[in-house]
Specification:
- The protein contains 10 helices and 12 strands.
- Helix 2 runs parallel beside helix 3, helix 5 runs antiparallel to helix 8 and helix 6 crosses helix 8.
- The strands form 3 sheets. A 5-stranded mixed β-sheet has the order 3-2-1-4-5, with helices on both faces.
- By secondary structure, it is an alpha/beta fold.
- The chain has 2 domains: 132 residues, Nucleotidyltransferase, domain 5 (2-Layer Sandwich), CATH 3.30.420.40; 169 residues, 2-Layer Sandwich (Nucleotidyltransferase, domain 5), CATH 3.30.420.
- Strand 6 and strand 7 form a beta hairpin.
- The longest helix has 27 residues.
- The structure holds 5'-O-[(R)-(carboxyoxy)(hydroxy)phosphoryl]adenosine (KG4) and zinc ion.
């Protein structure tokens, strides 16, 4: 089954053709990072406008790169949420129009499930496993019992991990998006500064918190500035990254112990972080877990992951969406 997938939830206009959930035939992305960089973050209205300019070309490119035409495509899939409403609407409306014009079934996909499904691409991963999800909008640990049977074990009480990376980067004078910039700067520093590392473990849930860590970095930098001292930017980046990542790795460890599962898959933009990948691999080797993460190009937003998720939704009996499908700023985690 070949699925044409469309994703426009934030600042990437993306389309892909994915075969049977695991094989990517094309993966086209028009990134708006350069446009938003001068504002230090994504400006929703500008994102929507640029999606409308790019979407037709991106979808055409995905079809051309895959060598596919209308008759080769079995279904159209689109991210309906979570994300920026105006941005999502561009993808949703384009997908609705295309599905209607082509007479193909339309499937609505959760962006969160897309990030998780990125782990199925070019891989043989099958449920059950624990998924550690860390993106700009979500931080959670889930028990994936089946392709469509997800159970949240805990999530952030406040900010998402990626959001903290972005804010810490901004106060350190780094450009948007902050995650890769912090990662680069952290390589030049030492994690020598103590920073908040809260993980709230209760019998029934695992929680994360990032707002305290974020505020700590903001105050720390301001204190150096007020004292007129040099800011040890690289050490702050390394210390922040260590605190942010250890929270994630600890939560994964608790989730694996609690579920008795032996596989953890990392997902979301923060899963591109080499320090996180190394730390979770190390902890996995020490504990005998199998650790999986998507290829780097499928960690941050893309449409291939939406095509992968759609395939497993369809295979599991999901009904097609109607043409009244609407975008949603938030979607349930599981
Ligand atoms: O999954 P994603 O592309 O979009 C959302 O669904 O939110 O995640 C974007 C987030 C941003 O906060 C970005 O700074 C972070 O992922 N990110 C990283 C890295 N690459 C992207 N964080 C840490 N290290 C990275 N290498
Ligand atoms: Zn995302």
């Amino acid at each position: 089954m070949k699925i044409l997938a469309i994703e426009s939830s934030c600042d990437e206009t993306a389309a892909a053709v994915v075969e049977n959930g695991r094989r990517v035939l094309s993966n086209a992305v028009a990134s708006q990072i350069e446009i938003h960089r001068r504002f230090g973050g994504v400006v929703p209205e500008i994102a929507s406008r640029n999606h409308t300019l790019s979407i037709e070309g991106v979808v055409k490119k995905a079809l051309d790169d895959a060598g596919c035409a209308r008759d080769d495509i079995d279904a159209v899939a689109v991210t309906y949420g979570a994300g920026l409403l105006g941005a999502l609407l561009v993808g949703v409306n384009f997908a609705k129009g295309l599905a209607y014009a082509w007479g193909k079934p339309l499937y609505a996909v959760s962006h969160i499930r897309g990030h998780i499904a990125a782990n199925y691409i070019d891989s043989d991963l099958e449920p059950p496993y624990v998924c550690l999800l860390a993106s700009g909008g979500h931080t959670a640990v889930l028990e994936v019992r089946g392709y469509r049977d997800l159970h949240s074990l805990g999530q952030s009480r406040d900010d998402a991990a990626g959001e903290a990376f972005d804010k810490a980067a901004r106060v350190l004078g780094l450009s948007y998006p902050g995650g890769p910039e912090i990662e680069k700067l952290a390589r030049e520093g030492k994690p020598s500064l103590a920073m908040p590392r809260p993980v709230f473990k209760r019998d029934d849930a695992i929680w994360f918190s990032y707002s305290g860590l974020k505020t700590f970095v903001v105050n720390l930098v301001h204190n150096y500035e007020q004292r007129g001292e040099d800011i040890p930017r690289a050490d702050i980046a390394a210390s922040f990254q260590s605190a942010a990542v250890e929270q994630l790795v600890d939560a994964a460890e608790t989730a694996l112990a609690r579920t008795g599962l032996d596989t953890v898959a990392v997902a979301g933009g923060v899963s591109a972080n080499a320090y996180l990948r190394a730390r979770i691999k190390e902890r996995g080797e020490a504990n005998g877990w199998k650790v999986r993460y998507p290829s780097l190009r499928y960690c941050t937003d893309n449409a291939a992951m939406i095509g992968a998720a759609a395939y497993f939704e369809i295979a599991g009996g999901a009904a097609p969406a109607s043409l009244t499908l609407d975008a949603a700023a938030t979607v349930p985690l599981s």
